[in-house]
Amino acid sequence: MHFNTVCITLLAEYQNNTKGEKVKITDGIYGTFSIGEPVIIDLINSPAMQRLKDISQLGIPDRYYHLKGFSRYDHSIGVFLLLRSHKASIAEQIAGLIHDISHTPFSHVIDWVINGKGGEELHQDDRHAEFLHNSEIPGILASYGISIDVILENDFGLLEREIPDICADRIDYALREFSNDDAHYCLNHLTVRNGSFAFDTMRSARLFAIRFLERQERNWGSYEATSRYKNFAEMFRYAVESNILSIEELLNGKETAIIEKLESAEDWRIRLALFKMTAKSLDGHPIRETPEIKKFRHVDPLFVLHRKLVRLSDADPGFKELLEAARERNKKGVRTAIIF
User: Fold this and answer.
1) How many helices and strands (H and E) does the chain possess?
2) Residue-level pLDDT at 2
3) Is 147 helix (H, G, I), strand (E, B) or coil?
4) What local confidence, expressed as pLDDT, does residue 1 receive?
């Protein structure tokens, strides 16, 4: 099986708990954890977290995407477990657990709806603090003596780093698309140095960086993904203009309910477009003249060499060349299929 068809899915078992009891979480990448902190259990069980089960990490539900995906909930739990396994503070674990809590249905597709194109895909970040303050999360944290401002205002170096560094967020969503062997190899060679993630060998750093770059070109920034984002965004705008959907639904509704509404709409354009996008390849459709530029996701990780941290591109000219070539290809954009 080719690695880019493999998605390591979260398998979580949450038992009915009272205070003092523990929760078992079993994850295909990180293993099994016993969670005893009531604040973590309450956050996991909160409506704001549970809604993430209905939000596609890859933006498009599996039925209309070319690959099998996973949910924002799976990813959020994974980030939390990765931070926990590397002994991050409880505050950083909480920040990791709720870092994607403000995502809209269809994840970054909403950026294309709002802006008419891709780009940096920052809508979720822009509304993160406001969404949290208007949710039940501050009250849950306050009941355990934790201020939401402590979570929002801290600079957690394991959770988030500027590109091209690796961080818990990028590590988790990438590993879930790697093959099992590659995911566990990279994870086993992950370490923490000077408050940030690094790899303990050049080989593991290179494997992760190459696989990450492959995901960018074969999935996140590919013709298939970009075409589906573009067409779904066009379809959503049309549905709003035609009073089939409201902006409120797109921002705060349930993803499955929105899809069901579109699938049952008495509108031939929507139903035909959805039917066409059930195909796992969009080859053969007419192509737009103007290319779309998708966000260039990439990493250039640090690794340990003779007790010092070294940037992969500084030690590996071959990787640096691959990275720059991919960057140039991304700048040219992708001419997308005309479905809608």
Assistant:
1) 17, 7
2) 32
3) coil
4) 30
* Token pair of 156 as six digits: 């957690």
Query: DSSP secondary structure string, 18-78?
Result: -TT--EEEEETTTEEEEE--HHHHHHHHSHHHHGGGGSBTTSS-GGGSSS---BHHHHHHH
Residue 120: how many CB atoms within 10 A of its CB? 11
CA distances from 80 to 67, 77, 99, 268, 301 (A): 25, 5, 9, 43, 21
- Identify the pLDDT of residue 9: 33
Cβ of 25: how many Cβ atoms within 10 Å?
A: 23
pLDDT for position 119: 75
The residues of the chain scoring below 70 in pLDDT are 1-20
Q: Give the Cα separation of 198 and 315 in Å (integer).
A: 14
- 3-class state of residue 87 by DSSP: coil
Residues 6 or more apart from 18 whose CB is under 8 A from it?
A: none
What does CATH list as the number for 3-332? 1.10.3210.10
- Predicted confidence (pLDDT) per residue in 56-81, tens digit: 999 999 999 999 999 999 999 999 99
Distance of CA 309 to the CA centre of its chain: 27
CA distance 140 to 47: 11
Before 164, cis peptide (omega within 30)?
A: yes
Record the tokens describing residue 226, joined without a space: 């970009």
300 and 198 in contact (C-beta within 8 Å)?
Answer: no
Closest CA to 74 of 157, 7, 159, 4: 7
- The strand ranges marked E within the chain are 10-13, 23-27, 31-35, 190-193, 196-199, 302-305, 308-311
